């Protein structure tokens, strides 16, 4: 059989190489996080599509701006981190609380069995980023927000923040494995799911990632779902249910961006 | 210039020197920290015992967010090793985690030598012999162990 003969060629590397070329094309054309754009800019993408045009009109009653993130599979984590830190810049008390929680998170992950040697590297960078967006006083807010934007567009920092949030998510799934097992489809164990769908970079996020991360950090997130679903309203969902949202995201099939409520 | 990848590789190297796992070793090449040479000693109580298998590890600036490319330089007869030395191992592909370091990579490859996965073969002959004719499999492995002394 021909397939047996082909087996010995190194297909994995060819596939990986092809993937990398596609990724490079995306990264050359879109920033990791864009500037604030008027929400109405979405219309252009769905020109002539009635359902979407109507839903965007409804959405623009509640939200003025959108901030795009690069569609690289890390968009949920990057959007979440950016949006939450941006909120913390305006709320010093919450910022200080989060800093303590973030500082303590490393020991918790080590206890859960993550290798402390490599964890340290990500944690240090994560804390660096948090310290760089320290809200000094309200007059300086704009300056700190610019700093946040700069940091999140530096690949090294930006990606390490994503890695660390992925590890926190993975840790939460492990800690409450009995609960999260219910969300997993198929024969995946929590262990397999964490290693295949959570920890590797560029793997897209699902509800289970969002719930685990929000719960671990105690942060409410509202996601607006812009899709072809019924009605002319965009459906919103809060994670964890009943929480007060601090982070607002828009989901279009396969991708998350940041929203700014009126 | 120090980049996150280079900084991390320096840390990996330091850890590998200070706390070396049994049966593996590795170090950056003289003039390029992005390319490493490594050696895995065949695990005891396996047909690979006594072999010294050389590998190269090539990192990109995206390490540790993306796995490096790891390749045997020595000839290795194994169900999950391609003819060109490439390795079919999930943690080097879709199960890569940024928490793995060089030490973890090398020890994982070492255990792959002891426990092949014949269901995702990179060398169909080796996979078939491993499943159906263990004696012949071990003979072929031992031949590459002897070869590894000379390489």
From TrEMBL, chain A:
Catalytic site: 72, 75, 255
Superkingdom of origin: Eukaryota
EC number, as in UniProt: 3.4.19.12
Domain OTU: 64-262
Keyword annotations: Hydrolase, Protease, Thiol protease, Ubl conjugation pathway
UniProt-annotated site: Interacts with free ubiquitin, residues: 211, 225, 227, 251, 256
Pfam families (alphabetical): Peptidase_C65
InterPro entries: OTU_dom (IPR003323), Otubain (IPR016615), Papain-like_cys_pep_sf (IPR038765), Peptidase_C65_otubain (IPR019400), Peptidase_C65_otubain_sub1 (IPR042468), Peptidase_C65_otubain_sub2 (IPR042467)
Family: Belongs to the peptidase C65 family.
Protein name per its UniProtKB record: ubiquitinyl hydrolase 1
Source organism of the structure: Drosophila grimshawi
Upper taxonomic lineage: Eukaryota, Metazoa, Ecdysozoa, Arthropoda, Hexapoda
Chain's gene name: Dgri\GH13358
